[in-house]
Protein backbone atom coordinates (compact mmCIF):
# COMPACT_ATOMS: atom_id res chain seq x y z
CA UNK A 1 0.00 0.00 0.00
CA UNK A 2 1.88 3.04 -1.25
CA UNK A 3 -0.91 5.61 -1.38
CA UNK A 4 -2.70 6.79 1.71
CA UNK A 5 -5.88 8.82 2.09
CA UNK A 6 -3.87 11.65 3.68
CA UNK A 7 -1.61 13.50 1.18
CA UNK A 8 0.83 14.42 3.98
CA UNK A 9 1.54 10.75 4.78
CA UNK A 10 3.79 8.46 2.77
CA UNK A 11 6.20 5.59 3.29
CA UNK A 12 9.59 6.61 4.65
CA UNK A 13 12.82 5.37 3.10
CA UNK A 14 16.42 4.91 4.22
CA UNK A 15 17.18 8.52 3.27
CA UNK A 16 14.63 9.66 5.87
CA UNK A 17 16.45 7.97 8.78
CA UNK A 18 18.30 11.09 10.08
CA UNK A 19 15.08 13.16 10.07
CA UNK A 20 13.12 10.36 11.78
CA UNK A 21 15.84 9.95 14.42
CA UNK A 22 15.86 13.69 15.10
CA UNK A 23 12.06 13.78 15.30
CA UNK A 24 11.83 10.86 17.74
CA UNK A 25 14.62 12.23 19.93
CA UNK A 26 13.10 15.72 20.08
CA UNK A 27 9.61 14.30 20.74
CA UNK A 28 10.58 12.21 23.75
CA UNK A 29 13.91 13.32 25.25
CA UNK A 30 15.71 16.40 26.45
CA UNK A 31 14.62 20.00 26.77
CA UNK A 32 13.16 20.25 23.26
CA UNK A 33 10.63 17.53 24.13
CA UNK A 34 9.24 19.68 26.96
CA UNK A 35 7.65 21.96 24.33
CA UNK A 36 5.14 19.18 23.64
CA UNK A 37 3.10 16.90 25.87
CA UNK A 38 4.67 13.57 24.85
CA UNK A 39 7.95 14.18 26.68
CA UNK A 40 9.52 11.43 28.75
CA UNK A 41 12.23 13.78 30.05
CA UNK A 42 10.88 13.54 33.61
CA UNK A 43 11.12 9.72 33.47
CA UNK A 44 14.26 9.09 31.41
CA UNK A 45 17.44 11.16 31.47
CA UNK A 46 19.36 12.09 28.33
CA UNK A 47 18.64 13.43 24.87
CA UNK A 48 18.50 10.20 22.88
CA UNK A 49 15.44 8.00 22.32
CA UNK A 50 16.93 6.18 19.33
CA UNK A 51 19.80 6.29 16.86
CA UNK A 52 20.24 5.80 13.10
CA UNK A 53 21.20 2.15 13.46
CA UNK A 54 18.08 1.35 15.50
CA UNK A 55 15.76 3.16 13.08
CA UNK A 56 17.42 1.41 10.10
CA UNK A 57 17.19 -2.00 11.78
CA UNK A 58 13.50 -1.43 12.57
CA UNK A 59 12.81 -0.15 9.05
CA UNK A 60 14.41 -3.24 7.48
CA UNK A 61 12.56 -5.84 9.58
CA UNK A 62 10.24 -8.15 7.68
CA UNK A 63 6.69 -6.83 7.83
CA UNK A 64 7.83 -3.40 9.03
CA UNK A 65 6.99 -0.03 7.46
CA UNK A 66 7.74 3.51 8.58
CA UNK A 67 5.22 6.17 7.70
CA UNK A 68 6.15 9.83 7.66
CA UNK A 69 4.00 12.94 7.88
CA UNK A 70 5.49 15.85 5.94
CA UNK A 71 4.47 19.49 5.99
CA UNK A 72 4.24 21.86 3.00
CA UNK A 73 8.03 22.35 3.09
CA UNK A 74 8.55 18.57 2.87
CA UNK A 75 9.89 18.40 6.44
CA UNK A 76 9.10 15.26 8.42
CA UNK A 77 7.05 16.41 11.41
CA UNK A 78 5.43 13.08 12.28
CA UNK A 79 6.27 9.39 11.98
CA UNK A 80 5.21 5.93 13.08
CA UNK A 81 6.50 2.40 12.65
CA UNK A 82 4.03 -0.39 11.91
CA UNK A 83 4.98 -4.05 12.11
CA UNK A 84 2.65 -6.77 10.90
CA UNK A 85 2.63 -9.75 13.23
CA UNK A 86 0.17 -12.33 11.91
CA UNK A 87 -3.27 -10.66 11.95
CA UNK A 88 -2.16 -7.79 14.22
CA UNK A 89 -0.12 -4.63 13.75
CA UNK A 90 2.37 -3.41 16.35
CA UNK A 91 2.53 0.39 16.45
CA UNK A 92 5.76 1.94 17.71
CA UNK A 93 8.18 4.84 17.27
CA UNK A 94 5.21 7.20 17.01
CA UNK A 95 6.28 10.82 17.17
CA UNK A 96 5.08 14.30 16.29
CA UNK A 97 7.26 17.40 16.44
CA UNK A 98 6.81 18.96 19.92
CA UNK A 99 5.92 22.35 18.44
CA UNK A 100 3.25 20.72 16.23
CA UNK A 101 1.61 18.61 18.96
CA UNK A 102 -2.02 19.28 19.73
CA UNK A 103 -2.86 20.21 16.14
CA UNK A 104 -4.36 16.89 15.02
CA UNK A 105 -1.32 15.39 13.28
CA UNK A 106 -1.16 12.41 15.64
CA UNK A 107 -4.85 11.72 15.10
CA UNK A 108 -4.35 11.82 11.33
CA UNK A 109 -1.43 9.39 11.58
CA UNK A 110 -3.49 6.99 13.73
CA UNK A 111 -6.26 7.08 11.13
CA UNK A 112 -3.85 6.06 8.37
CA UNK A 113 -2.43 3.32 10.64
CA UNK A 114 -5.93 1.84 10.84
CA UNK A 115 -6.37 2.07 7.07
CA UNK A 116 -3.04 0.30 6.61
CA UNK A 117 -3.97 -2.44 9.09
CA UNK A 118 -7.33 -3.00 7.38
CA UNK A 119 -5.59 -3.14 4.00
CA UNK A 120 -3.47 -5.99 5.38
CA UNK A 121 -6.64 -7.63 6.78
CA UNK A 122 -5.39 -7.25 10.34
CA UNK A 123 -7.94 -7.29 13.15
CA UNK A 124 -6.17 -5.09 15.72
CA UNK A 125 -3.40 -2.60 16.42
CA UNK A 126 -1.46 -2.82 19.66
CA UNK A 127 1.31 -0.84 21.30
CA UNK A 128 3.36 -0.51 24.45
CA UNK A 129 3.08 2.70 26.49
CA UNK A 130 4.97 3.56 29.68
CA UNK A 131 2.36 2.86 32.36
CA UNK A 132 3.05 6.18 34.14
CA UNK A 133 2.17 8.21 31.03
CA UNK A 134 -1.46 8.80 32.04
CA UNK A 135 -2.01 11.78 29.70
CA UNK A 136 -0.80 9.74 26.72
CA UNK A 137 -2.78 6.67 27.82
CA UNK A 138 -5.90 8.83 28.09
CA UNK A 139 -5.27 10.17 24.56
CA UNK A 140 -5.03 6.63 23.16
CA UNK A 141 -8.18 5.65 25.06
CA UNK A 142 -10.04 8.54 23.45
CA UNK A 143 -8.99 7.03 20.12
CA UNK A 144 -10.34 3.58 20.93
CA UNK A 145 -7.32 1.84 22.48
CA UNK A 146 -7.88 -0.21 25.62
CA UNK A 147 -5.59 -1.51 28.35
CA UNK A 148 -5.14 -5.26 27.76
CA UNK A 149 -4.02 -5.79 31.37
CA UNK A 150 -0.62 -7.02 30.14
CA UNK A 151 2.56 -5.40 31.43
CA UNK A 152 6.17 -5.74 30.27
CA UNK A 153 9.31 -4.50 31.95
CA UNK A 154 10.98 -1.49 30.34
CA UNK A 155 14.59 -2.62 30.25
CA UNK A 156 17.13 0.19 30.30
CA UNK A 157 19.62 0.03 27.43
CA UNK A 158 22.76 1.89 26.38
CA UNK A 159 20.90 3.97 23.78
CA UNK A 160 17.63 5.28 25.11
CA UNK A 161 18.67 6.97 28.36
CA UNK A 162 18.95 6.40 32.10
CA UNK A 163 15.66 5.63 33.82
CA UNK A 164 14.96 7.98 36.70
CA UNK A 165 12.67 5.39 38.31
CA UNK A 166 11.53 1.84 37.61
CA UNK A 167 9.37 1.76 34.47
CA UNK A 168 7.08 -0.75 32.82
CA UNK A 169 5.04 -0.86 29.65
CA UNK A 170 1.26 -1.15 29.49
CA UNK A 171 0.03 -3.00 26.40
CA UNK A 172 -2.87 -1.23 24.72
CA UNK A 173 -4.90 -2.54 21.79
CA UNK A 174 -7.64 -1.42 19.45
CA UNK A 175 -9.83 -3.90 17.63
CA UNK A 176 -10.48 -2.63 14.11
Give an account of the 3D structure:
- This protein has 176 residues and is α+β, with helices and mostly antiparallel strands.
- A seven-stranded mixed β-sheet has the order 1-3-4-5-6-9-7, sandwiched between helices. A two-stranded antiparallel sheet has the order 2-8.
- Helix content is 28%, strand content 32%.
- The chain is built from five helices and nine strands.
Helix content: 25-40%
Largest sheet: 7 strands, mixed
Shape descriptor: globular
What's the number of extended β-strand segments?
Answer: 9
How many helix segments? 5
* pLDDT averaged over residues: 95
Our Rg estimate from Cα atoms comes to 15 Å
In which order are the strands of the major sheet placed?
1-3-4-5-6-9-7
SSE succession: EHHEHEEEHEHEEE
Question: Hey, roughly how much beta strand do the residues contain?
Answer: 25-35%
Structural class computed from helices and strand pairing: alpha+beta
Give the oligomer, counting copies of the same chain as homo and different chains as hetero.
single chain
User: Residue ranges: pLDDT <50 for 5 or more in a row?
Assistant: none
How far is the first residue's CA from the last residue's CA? 18 Å
Helix and strand layout, with pairings?
Blueprint: E1 9-11, H1 17-28, H2 30-33, E2 44-45, H3 52-60, E3 64-70, E4 76-85, E5 88-96, H4 105-119, E6 124-130, H5 134-142, E7 146-153, E8 162-163, E9 168-175
Parallel strand pairs: 5-6
Antiparallel strand pairs: 1-3, 2-8, 3-4, 4-5, 6-9, 7-9
Keywords:
single chain, 176 residues, alpha+beta, seven-stranded mixed sheet, two-stranded antiparallel sheet, 5 helices, 28% helix, globular
Amino acid sequence: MNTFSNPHISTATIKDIPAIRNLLNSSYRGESSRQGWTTEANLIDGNIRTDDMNVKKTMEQTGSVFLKYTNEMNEIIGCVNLQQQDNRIYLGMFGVSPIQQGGGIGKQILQVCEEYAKHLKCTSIYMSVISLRTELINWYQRHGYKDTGKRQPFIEDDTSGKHLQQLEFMIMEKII
